[in-house]
Amino acid sequence: MLFDVQWGRAELAERLYIQDIMQRNLIDTISHELRTPTQAILGYSEMAMIDIDNNEAGQDYKHYFNSIIRNAN
Which segments of the chain does DSSP mark as H helices, in order? Predict the structure, then answer.
């Protein structure tokens, strides 16, 4: 009987360990998938800000790109 209890605890601990690994992998994957497009948006927005700073006509759009960069960060 004691052996069965210990065996059950060992199986439960192993299942919890595997579940923890799966949860960490899911979080890592989701985090990567969210970060990837955000970095592209941030990069293009920063490039647009350089163009805006060098172009008087684009100054009207500067606050939009500041907002995009702030939110992407």
Answer: 2-53, 62-72
